[in-house]
Each structure stands twice: as structure tokens, then as C-alpha cells.
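Figure 3 (text version): C-alpha cells given as input.
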């Protein structure tokens, strides 16, 4: 068994994000999926689809820019660092231009999105080229020009032969002539001294061939052709300087070296066009190259899924991993918090529960001491599309992970076991049946949940015996849904919830919500749109709150039902939550696709909406406490696959399709006593912008805060284990510097404690 892979953690310099109180948010991003690499005099810059990081060569420190500190891209395609202004530019698929200024602040430019009169799918930014204070932006419609100092757009060139938009892949300048490689019209050329260059007729076709990139090197043009070769222009004809045998992805130069990147090669050429190195692999990694550059004799190579690496030009055999520590990828499908680790899996499936193309990403885990570690795919019996994970309730070091193709994994330290159709007996896991191919094995396991006796329940798609349980004694048992769920032969199921009565609530894609309890003579109740008031029979998620209410998220809305009604009823009807909006009454989350629901320690609900971000609503749903979207928070996407709450710290994790962030709220579980009440931060310093949190509370504890002279400034009652104080006197004005007394008493006044907090203005 291989040991878990650990990635070296660099010193990280983070600049706080100003729109939300940065102390409330953390980022858990991957920096492995590199899209571009850029050189500067004394640093290297790299970009993933949703972040930019840079490493200063001499100091060996790392700066990271992501949604936490204000860099919120759509999907980055290319980057450029300006040595004259110390600005870094990041272009996106939709024309969004992000600028990291010299002081670390981030500016967002939407001029291309809002003002260029072409369809939205024609606004991709492909490349940047800086010349004499101007930034030439190659896009899918033409060339836009920006002033590097002021960051203001100057002009746009449409350079098709008839003035139409055309994909410009890269530009360069030689002898005050601008050359643009286009997708459809070869290399187009214009004179920068021509005041009428905005007129397409002032451009000419320099070469009508099929080219993919161009740079100025050795005071001459060097261009990649679609025939897998690179050429120099000697003043009259193009002469081949490199046969890379693959399509060129990037061509770059730092002035003294020429760098050509293909999927499986990184070529570095000197000024005599001799190949200094041809890198084809990185030891211990099956890499796909994306971009490369050279700074000070060091080659920096960005890969498709393994991060940024460096090696020496003189000895390109020893490689150093350069990416910041993070999970394997940004698309995290499910996340689970244990006392010692935060676990993440990546094996997604579509709305129809289709896992293809099958994923092979392994399992990640994070701890404060070790950062992110990876259990590789090879160590997991090559289990594919691992879609969920659950922690054993009595052993935080034991986890189970469901694979939507290979079965069920049991992981305890370095001991890993795979359960499938070969080792779980006749009542165990089953493969779906493929007509005409009986030997094909596809075991789609999902919905892991433990009951109070530590029995592990799962669902098994596309089989009649769809509900499985691994008993605490190691025995498997199955329960048949034939005759219960009309579409059981093609049944697919979301993550189940198990209530205090041991009733299993299983979301299904076509049959609504299936409720089952083996302790009531294998009793089943099916709730659907016909008999149970569900807004849609596609149930996406369920959650049981602290008052035994089941919250049901469907493809088209929300419903609730009391779990206790299952015991006494044979049919169940769900209820909509009606809220008042002005003079109008309406359903909460009417016709919205609900992706996930999580209940915090104060019985509030976090609800993820497809393309709508996340809501925090009060325990009864009548009040919206927060709504976070990509526009008003550090969320990198409005599609949140999974919400996980750390009941001890109150940290709420949002796993999205573009990275994971967390919100440091007050979602902690109530304590049994007041012996561990804790106040933080303490002292409160002038630069702190957040709220003071008082944790370790019992539920419904009374909290009074007074100044040192006994004047009351704040009073509240806890709901859950933590409350927060905005350091204002009853919400009106900030209190003065000084020591403040915090008096805490339990609801029945049998337990009490006193704490102090110092505030410095």
C-alpha cells in the first residue's frame, strides 16, 4: 500500500477580500489545473481557471489571488504580467478582464462583456501582448486595446477581410507593425502608425496559412503552424526551426529563450534556435502540459491536473512541485467534516445520475497540521466516480466512501477495503444488468447514512433490492423496492437521512421520497406529487432538523413533514412553507431546484439553489438571514454541490463546481454546560472588522454584556452554541475602548459563568 501523498506547503501571502468581512471566509482551492504560466523579471505567475498565484524567485514566497481576496473570474483563459506597472491581467472565457494592481487590490473590467457588439460566445480572451504602454488583447472577435497605466480601453479592431469579427489567437509587434494570428484569415498585419487602423481595409493578409501562435524573438517573427511545426520569418520566407510532432498549445518568449508547449513536450530554444531541452515527462506524474516559461534559467511548467513544476535548464531531471497546497481539483462533489480531517470527493454525476465519463481522482483530506493530502486512485482499488463519504459515528478515523461504479470503500488509516458484488454475499451489493453483456460490472452505490446502532445504510441503483445495510456485525442485508417504487428497475437515489425512529428517508429521481423502517414490519411509504403534495417527483435532498421536521428539496421546490407521522400514518402529505412578501403570500423557494439542505446548531437551514447561491433561513423558514451569491460574497460559483457544517467551530463549507470556500458563522451545536465558554477574538483590535463570538453556550442561555461600571450594552438569548456581538451598544453605536464583562446563565439559571473581553479602538 502506498503512503498518502502530501504536497509541500509554501508560505502564503493572502490579501483580505473587502466586500465581505474577510475574517469570516476561508478558501480551500485547488491550484493543480493550470491554464497559463507567465514570466516576469524576478517572479513567475500561474493561473488556474479561478485563481492566480505568483512566486518571487529570490524570496521564495507565494502570493495567491482568489475569490477570498476579490479575484472572481468566470473562467480564466490567459494571463499577463506588466513589468512597467506591476499589474497582472487575467482574461476569461466571457470577456471579463481582471486586474491585480500593484498594491494587491483587484479591479474588474466588464467593458468587453457590456460594450463590444458581438454575441456573448464570441468574447473569449485568448492572449495579451504589451507594447509601448498598450495592451493588445486577442479575443474571439478581434483585438481590443487597453492603456496599461490607466486600465482604460482605447479601441477595438475587427480585422476580418470584410470587417467581420474573427478569432484572434495571438498578437505581436515588430518594427511598429502589429501581426495577428487569426483562425480563419491567416496572419493579418497592420501599421501602428496608421491613424485609420480601426478601418479593416487598412489591414492586410501577411500570410494566408493556418497558424496557431506568434511571438517576436531575435528581432524576427516566430510562429507556430497547424502542421505541428514552428517557423521563423527571415524577411522573405518562413523557415522551420522546430518540428514538435504535436499541435502547439502555447508559444512564449522571455527575450532570450523561446518556449513551445504541446500536450507532451516542452521545448526551450536558444537564440540560435537550438533546442536546449525537450521535456516529455515529470517523474511520478502522468502529466499533460498546458503552458511553460523560463525565468533566470529555471523552467516553470503548468500541467492540466498536477499543478506547476520547476526544473533547471542545465539539469532538467529534478523537478519541484510549486503549486500551493490544496485539494486535487476545484470541482468538489461532496465534503464531510470529522474531528481530525475534512474529507472531499470528486466523483460527480449528472441530474440523471449518469457518472460517465468515469472519474479517477481519489480522495482528499485536510488537516491544519498536514494541509491537504491525497489518497490516490491506485490505492483505492481503482474505484471510479467516488461520489459520497461518511464518517463512522463511533470512530472518526474510520470512513466509508461510495463509488457510483465500483461499490463501497472502507478506509481506516492505510487499511482500505473495497466491497462489491463479489464479496458481500447474496444480500449485498449488486451490479446493474447490461442486456447482451452479462459480464459487465457497474455497481452504483450512493446515499450513505449511519443509524444509531452504527449500521451503515446505502442505496444501490438499477436493482430491485435497492436499499442495502452493512450491519455493525459485518453482515449485509437487502430490502426490495419491487412493488413499492414504480420505476425501481431504473431507480436512482440521492443521499438518505435517518431519523430518531430509524426511519430511512430516501430521495429518488422518479418516484418521489421513499420512507422505510424495518422495525415496523418493513413498512414503506412513498410520497410523491400525486399523493403527498410534492412539487416534483425528482427529490434531490433531505435533511432532518432539531425538531424532527424533515425538509425535502426537490427539482421544483421545498416541502416539509414531521418524521413522527411515519410511525402512526400509512400516508404522508407534505407542507409548503408560506412566507409573507409585502402583501403577498408565497411558497418559500417556489419552483426552485434545491441542491442541498444543511441544518446548523441553531436549527437554521442552509439551502443551496441551482444557479442561485445559498440561503440561510430561520428555523421555521420565515426569515432569510443571509443570501450569498458569487456577486456579493467570495463564493466562486452559484452552484453549490454540497453544504457541510462543523458543529464545533461553526464553519460552514460550500463545495461548488469551481472551488470550495467556508463561512465562519455561528452554526455550532449547544454545549451540555457552560464550563467551556470561550470569547474570540480577544482582545478586539482596531483593524478587526468582524463580530465578537461567544461559543460553548448551552441552548437558550442568557447573555448580558456590560462595561466595567456595570452599564448594560447588549443582551441576547442563544440559539445553539454560539452568539455574535457586533460590539455596538444595542446595535446603535460602537462601544468605546475598555474591558467588557460577559455574564452567561443557563435557561434554568442552574449554571453560570463570567468572561471578559477587551476592546481596543
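Below: residues designed for each position.
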Amino acid at each position: 500500500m502506498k503512503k498518502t501523498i502530501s504536497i509541500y506547503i509554501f508560505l502564503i501571502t493572502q490579501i483580505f477580500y473587502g466586500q465581505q468581512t474577510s475574517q469570516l471566509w476561508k478558501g480551500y482551492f485547488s491550484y493543480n489545473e493550470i491554464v497559463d504560466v507567465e514570466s516576469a523579471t524576478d517572479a513567475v505567475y500561474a493561473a488556474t481557471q479561478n485563481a492566480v498565484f505568483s512566486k518571487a524567485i529570490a524570496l521564495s514566497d507565494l502570493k495567491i489571488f482568489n475569490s477570498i481576496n476579490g479575484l472572481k473570474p468566470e473562467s480564466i483563459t490567459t494571463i499577463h504580467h506588466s513589468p512597467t506597472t506591476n499589474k497582472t491581467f487575467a482574461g476569461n472565457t466571457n470577456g471579463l478582464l481582471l486586474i491585480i494592481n500593484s498594491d494587491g487590490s483587484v479591479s474588474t473590467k466588464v467593458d468587453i462583456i457590456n460594450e463590444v457588439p458581438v454575441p456573448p460566445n464570441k468574447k473569449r480572451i485568448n492572449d495579451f501582448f504589451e507594447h509601448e504602454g498598450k495592451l493588445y488583447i486577442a479575443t474571439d472577435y478581434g483585438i481590443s486595446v487597453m492603456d496599461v497605466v490607466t486600465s482604460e480601453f482605447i479601441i477595438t479592431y475587427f480585422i476580418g477581410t470584410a470587417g467581420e469579427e474573427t478569432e484572434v489567437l495571438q498578437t505581436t509587434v515588430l518594427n511598429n507593425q502589429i501581426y495577428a494570428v487569426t483562425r480563419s484569415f491567416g496572419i493579418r498585419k497592420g501599421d501602428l502608425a496608421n491613424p485609420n487602423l480601426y478601418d479593416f481595409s487598412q489591414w492586410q493578409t501577411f500570410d494566408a496559412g493556418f497558424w496557431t501562435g506568434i511571438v517576436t524573438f531575435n528581432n524576427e517573427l516566430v510562429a507556430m503552424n497547424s502542421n505541428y511545426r514552428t517557423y521563423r520569418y527571415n524577411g522573405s520566407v518562413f523557415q522551420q526551426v522546430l518540428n514538435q510532432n504535436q499541435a502547439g498549445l502555447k508559444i512564449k518568449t522571455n527575450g532570450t529563450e523561446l518556449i513551445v508547449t504541446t500536450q507532451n513536450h516542452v521545448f526551450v530554444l536558444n537564440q540560435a534556435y537550438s533546442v536546449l531541452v525537450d521535456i516529455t515527462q515529470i517523474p511520478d506524474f502522468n502529466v499533460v502540459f498546458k503552458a511553460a516559461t523560463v525565468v533566470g534559467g529555471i523552467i516553470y511548467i503548468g500541467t492540466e491536473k498536477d499543478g506547476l513544476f520547476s526544473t533547471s535548464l542545465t539539469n532538467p531531471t529534478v523537478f519541484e512541485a510549486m503549486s500551493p497546497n490544496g485539494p486535487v481539483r476545484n470541482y468538489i462533489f461532496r465534503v464531510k467534516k470529522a474531528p481530525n480531517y475534512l474529507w472531499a470527493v470528486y466523483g460527480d454525476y449528472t441530474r440523471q445520475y449518469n457518472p460517465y465519463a468515469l472519474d479517477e481522482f481519489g480522495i482528499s483530506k485536510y488537516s491544519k497540521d498536514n494541509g491537504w493530502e491525497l489518497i490516490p486512485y491506485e490505492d483505492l482499488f481503482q474505484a471510479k466516480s467516488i461520489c459520497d463519504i461518511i464518517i463512522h459515528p463511533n470512530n472518526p478515523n474510520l470512513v466509508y466512501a461510495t463509488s457510483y461504479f465500483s461499490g463501497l470503500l472502507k478506509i481506516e488509516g492505510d487499511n482500505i477495503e473495497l466491497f462489491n458484488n463479489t464479496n458481500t454475499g447474496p444480500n449485498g451489493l449488486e451490479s446493474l444488468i447490461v442486456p447482451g453483456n452479462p459480464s459487465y460490472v457497474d455497481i452504483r452505490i450512493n446515499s450513505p447514512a449511519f443509524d444509531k446502532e452504527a449500521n451503515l445504510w446505502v442505496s444501490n441503483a438499477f436493482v430491485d433490492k435497492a436499499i442495502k445495510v452493512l450491519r455493525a456485525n459485518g453482515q449485509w442485508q437487502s430490502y426490495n423496492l419491487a412493488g413499492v417504487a414504480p420505476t425501481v428497475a431504473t431507480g436512482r437515489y440521492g443521499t438518505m437521512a435517518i431519523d430518531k425512529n430509524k426511519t430511512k428517508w430516501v430521495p429518488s429521481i422518479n418516484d418521489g421520497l421513499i420512507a422505510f423502517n424495518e422495525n415496523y414490519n418493513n413498512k414503506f411509504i412513498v410520497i410523491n406529487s400525486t399523493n403527498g403534495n410534492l412539487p416534483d417527483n425528482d427529490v434531490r435532498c433531505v435533511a432532518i432538523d432539531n425538531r424532527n421536521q424533515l425538509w425535502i428539496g426537490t427539482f421544483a421546490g421545498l416541502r416539509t413533514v414531521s418524521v413522527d407521522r411515519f410511525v402512526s400514518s400509512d400516508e404522508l402529505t407534505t407542507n409548503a412553507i408560506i412566507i409573507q412578501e409585502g402583501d403577498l403570500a408565497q411558497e418559500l423557494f417556489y419552483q426552485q431546484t434545491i441542491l442541498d439542505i444543511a441544518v446548523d446548531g441553531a436549527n437554521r437551514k442552509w439551502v443551496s439553489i441551482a444557479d442561485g447561491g445559498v440561503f440561510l433561513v430561520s428555523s421555521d423558514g420565515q426569515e432569510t438571514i443571509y443570501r450569498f451569491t458569487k456577486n456579493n460574497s467570495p463564493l466562486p460559483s452559484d452552484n453549490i454541490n454540497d453544504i457541510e457544517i462543523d458543529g464545533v467551530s461553526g464553519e460552514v463549507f460550500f463545495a461548488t463546481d469551481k472551488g470550495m470556500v467556508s463561512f465562519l458563522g455561528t452554526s455550532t451545536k449547544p454545549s451540555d454546560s457552560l464550563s467551556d465558554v470561550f470569547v474570540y477574538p480577544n482582545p478586539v483590535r482596531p483593524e478587526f472588522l468582524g463580530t465578537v463570538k461567544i461559543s460553548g453556550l448551552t441552548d437558550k442561555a442568557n447573555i448580558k454584556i456590560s462595561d466595567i461600571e456595570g452599564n448594560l450594552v447588549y443582551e441576547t438569548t442563544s440559539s445553539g452554541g454560539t452568539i455574535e456581538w457586533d460590539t455596538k451598544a444595542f446595535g446603535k453605536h460602537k462601544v468605546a475602548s475598555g474591558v467588557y464583562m460577559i455574564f452567561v446563565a443557563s435557561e434554568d439559571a442552574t449554571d453560570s459563568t463570567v468572561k471578559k473581553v477587551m476592546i481596543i479602538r
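Confidence is low (pLDDT under 50) at residues 1-21.
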